C-alpha cells in the first residue's frame, strides 16, 4: 500500500520514471484497473509504482508518413482508430468490435499490445499486416515487428525502461479481405476466436496471401509455412493445395480450450476465403 | 384528478426517481459510525477445518465466526429447512461457504487483513455433478444416498401395462445447466441498532423471510428484528432466501460490535458465491403406438441442489408438477430426486423448477414429432390440456385453456406454417416453437395452510396507504398494486401510497415469489379496497384482510394429489434463427410470443416483463454457461458469464389473450415467471432444425453446437 | 509531474491530492456523493457506472482518477435537470424503460451520448449505443423505443 503512483506531464518525465523506478505505464486503465482490482472503495495496487500516462500529448495522433507507413501513436483508442480512414480495414474492423463502446473510448492500442493477451483484439490484424512497434526509452528508440515483440501470453519484449510509442503499419492494397471475430456474444464481447485473411490476386496468380488467427494459441498465429503454399500459385491450383494448406494451418494453431470448435471453425473460414479467391466475380471484402 | 381505471395507460410510480439516479439502493446508504463487513469463505469444496489463523487485528476490527453465536442462539438459518449454517464450523461443504465475517472501518485495511486470514483444511473428495452424487463420490453428503428429497406422482394406467402395449419406446436424457441471476445490483445489506432493535436495510424480495431466518441465531423471536427493504435492483429469485446468508453473519457481528455494518457483494462474489438455478437431468421414457401417439411417459427428474436443502424440495415439486408441460398425457409416472452435491446451494430462480422440466418435455415431444414426420406444433397441439383435463397430480384444470388461439396469433404473425415447411432441416435456417405454463402462487392449498397472507389499507384524510410485506424489485408491483387499489377505490392513483415494506409496520403478506403477488396479495388488497370504498365516509380507518382459498379444490400435500394450481399462466413462443455455417453463430431473426396472464393489470408493465423474461430465457439457452470444476465455478465475472446485450436479440412481437381468472383482482393471475418458461425450448428447436442435429442440453453456445453437428454425422 | 488532479464534475471544480490510482467511481460516489453512478461489476463490463468524460461515454469504475486530470465530467446528477436530461428521463418513464432501475442512470448517460452525436438514430444505432449497458430486466425493447421517443420529442433540443 506504500507504493507511490505518478502522473507524468511529459514523455520525458515518463521515460525518466520508467528508467529510474520501472514504473508500470497505465494508458487507458481498462486492463490494469481490472486485473488489479481490489474492490469497492479500494484503489488497485500493483506492488510497484504506476505512472498514469493517459494525457501525454506526444503519444496521441494517427498520421500517414512519407515512408509508406501509417503511424498510430500508443494512446489512440479503438474508437478513434475505428473512425480513422487512414487506418487499414482489418485494424478498423477489429477496433470497432473491441469490447463495449465505453471501453473503446478509453482502451488504447499501446495497452492492448502491451498487455499481450491471447484474446486481445488488435494484435491479430496488426500482425497480419506486418505492423511494427516503436519502443522508446530515455536513451534509445527501436523498431521491431509486432509479431516478434509479442513473445507469448502476456509476455512482450518491452524492456523495463521502455514505453510503446507507436505502431507502424505498412500501407498495402489487397484485392481480397476477410475478418471475423467470434465473440462470447454479439456486442461487448471477448473474442473466442478471430481470423483475418488478405490476398492480392492478379491475372489469376496469388501474389500475396496471408492470414492470422487470434485466441487460438498463446499469441497471434501466422504461419509463413502455410502462406507460402499459396503464394505465387495460380488460383486454379487452389483445390489441390487447399488440404495441405488447411493441415499446415491446423498444425500452427494450438487452442487450449474449445479445441475442436476453434480448429474446425478456423478451417471452415479459411476454406471459405480460398473459395472466394477462385471466384473471379468476387473481390474486396469477403463476407 | 380522475379515478384511475385498470385499462388506463399510466406510468410507473418509481420510474422517475430511478432514471434520475435518486433511488437509494443499499450501497448508496450511509449511517454515522458505519463500518464495513466482508465474508471470509471456504476455498475448498469439501473437507474439515483444521485451523483458522487470524492475524492480529488493529483496533476497531473484528473477525466474527460461529464461536460468536451466543449460547441461546443456534448456528442455523431457517429458510424452509434449517440445515443451512450461518457459519461453517468443523467442516465445509462447498466453495464459498461462510466461515466468518471480518468487520472494520476501512475497506483497504479489510482487504489487506482478509488476505492474511488463513484457513487450513483437510481436503476431501467433492461430488459436484448429479452423477458424482448418485455414485456417492467421496462418500455421502446427505443421508446415505445423497437424495435430499424426492417425490412422485402418477396418473392413468400403471407404467408396466403401458409399456407392454407400446409399439416403440423413445428414451432420452435432457439436461440444463446452472444459471446465475445477474441482478444488476449485487446482494447487499446493512444492519444497525435502532431503538434497541436490530434493524436491517436490505436488498431482498422477502423481508419477513429474513427476520424469521436469522432471529434464532441470537435466540430472538422474528418480531424482535426489523427488516426494511430498500430499493431492490433486480432479484429473479436470487434475493428470495439468499439475503439470509448475508443477514445472519451481519446480525451476529452487530450483536458483538454494536455499530452499523454494511456488506455489499462485489460482482465476483455474487457470481461465485451466490445461489444459482438448479442444474437438471431429466430421463424420459415414452411409450408410443405405431402412429406415434403417446401412450404414456415415465420420467425421472434429478435436480442438483448443492450442499443444503434450502428451498430445493419445493423447487423440485414444481419441477415434477410441470414435467408434462401443457399436455394431457394419458398415463404418466414422474419421480423427482433432489441430489446433494458439494456446490453452492441451488435455490429460487424465476420459474422455480418449472423451466427445467418444461424444456425437457418440449424438446422430447419435438424429437418424437420429428421422428414420426409431424410438425412439432401440430403434434403437440393434439395433447393440449383443456378445461377439466386431469393433471399429473390427479387434479383438474379449472380454467379455459386458450393455447389454440395463442398458437394462431403467433403462427400467423411469424408465418410459422410456411417457414416450418420451407426451411429444410439442416439448411441453416430454422423456426422453432414451444408451449408452456406456470402454476400461479403456492402449490395446492399452501397459500391458506402455510402462508396466510395479510394485507392492510389505511385511510388518512383523502389518502390511502397500502401496507403489505410484498416488495418491488423491478417487476412493477408498486405500480400494479396501487392501480388495483385505486381502481377499486375509484380514486386517482396519486392518492395511493405504498412505501417499501418495514416488517415492524406492515402485516406479513407472504414472500414476493411464486408469481403470487398480483394474483393473491393483489386480490386481498382489492377486497380491502372494496370494503374501504363502501365505508369511505367513516373518516380515518384501516381495513385488514387475510387470504381466503376458494372452496372445492382439494389438495393433499402428503401424497401430492389434487389441484396443484387453480390458475396457470399459459404461453406460446416462436423463435426464428439462422446459423452461420462457418462459425455456428446463431442469429435470431424473430421472436413471437403470446401469453395468457388472465388480465393485464398494466399492459406496459406486462410488456416489459414479457420482453425481459423471454430474453433471460434465450440467454439461458444460448450463452449463459456456468461451469463448475471440482466445486469451483469457472465463470467469475460479467465478461466470462455473459448475459444478452441489446444487440443479441431482435425486437419482439408479443401478444396477450384475455382470460380473466375468477379469483384474481380484475381477473389477473401470475405472470413474472411464466414469461421465462418457454423461449429457451423454442430457440433450441429452431437451432436443431437449422442444423439438422439433436440437442439435449442447454446452454448451446457455438462451441457446443460443433459437438451437436459432430454427433449428427 | 502532477502532484494533484484537477477536474470538473458537473461544472464544479474538484481537486484531489491522494493516490492517483483511486478509482474515479469511488471519488464520485463516496467523496462527492453522486450515488446515481452505480457500481454493477467494477470492471467496465456492465455500464451501470457510465459517465461522460470530455464528451465521451466511459465507465468510471475502470478509470483511475489520475487519468481524469483536466477533464470535464458529467454524471446523471449533472444532466437530470437540464432540458436534455429531462427529455430522456421522461421518455424512459413514459416508454416503460425502467424496471429495477439499477442500470438506468448509466443507460440514460449512454442515450445522452448517442443523441448528442446522432439526432435521428435508427433502432440499430440505439441498440449499438446501449450495447455496453447490461440490463437484466427489460430485454431492452422498451429502452430502445424510449430512446427513440426522446429523439422524437427532443427535436431541436438535439440539433
The helix/strand class of chain A is: alpha+beta
Low-confidence stretches of chain C: none
Mean pLDDT of chain C: 97
Helix content range of chain A: 25-40%
SSE sequence of chain A, one letter per element: HEHEEEHHHHHEEHEEEEEEHHHE
Radius of gyration of chain C (CA) equals 15 Å
CATH architectural category of the largest domain in chain C: Orthogonal Bundle
Question: Distance between the terminal alpha carbons of chain C, to the nearest Å?
Answer: 40 Å
How many domain modules of chain A? 2
Please give a structural write-up.
The complex is a heterotrimer of chains A (287), B (713) and C (159). Chain A folds into 2 domains: 115 residues, Uridine Diphospho-n-acetylenolpyruvylglucosamine Reductase, domain 3 (2-Layer Sandwich); 110 residues, 2-Layer Sandwich (Enolase-like, domain 1). Chain A starts with 10 loop residues before the first helix and ends with a strand. In chain A, helix 10 packs antiparallel against helix 11. In chain A, the strands form 4 sheets. Chain A has a 5-stranded antiparallel β-sheet with strand order 3-4-9-5-6. A 4-stranded mixed β-sheet of chain A has the order 12-11-10-13, sandwiched between helices. Chain A has a two-stranded parallel sheet with strand order 1-2. In chain A, 32% of the residues lie in helices and 24% in strands. Chain A is α+β, with helices and mostly antiparallel strands and 287 residues long. In chain A, a hairpin with a 2-residue loop joins strand 7 and strand 8. The longest helix of chain A has 20 residues. Chain A has 11 helices and 13 strands. Chain B has 3 domains: 110 residues, Aldehyde oxidase/xanthine dehydrogenase, molybdopterin binding domain (Aldehyde Oxidoreductase, domain 4), CATH 3.30.365.10; 186 residues, Alpha-Beta Complex (Aldehyde Oxidoreductase, domain 3); 316 residues, Aldehyde oxidase/xanthine dehydrogenase, molybdopterin binding domain (Aldehyde Oxidoreductase, domain 4, 2-Layer Sandwich), CATH 3.30.365.10. Chain B has a 7-stranded mixed β-sheet, sandwiched between helices. In chain B, a hairpin with a 2-residue loop joins strand 9 and strand 10. Chain B is globular. Chain C has 6 helices and 5 strands. A 5-stranded mixed β-sheet of chain C has the order 2-1-5-3-4. In chain C, a hairpin with a 2-residue loop joins strand 1 and strand 2. In chain C, helix 3 crosses helix 6. The longest helix of chain C is centred in the last third of the chain and has 14 residues. Chain C starts with a strand and ends in a 5-residue tail after the last helix. The model of chain C has no long low-confidence stretch (mean pLDDT 97). Chains in contact: A-B, A-C, B-C. At the B-C interface, helix 1 and helix 16 of B face helix 3, helix 4, helix 5 and helix 6 of C.
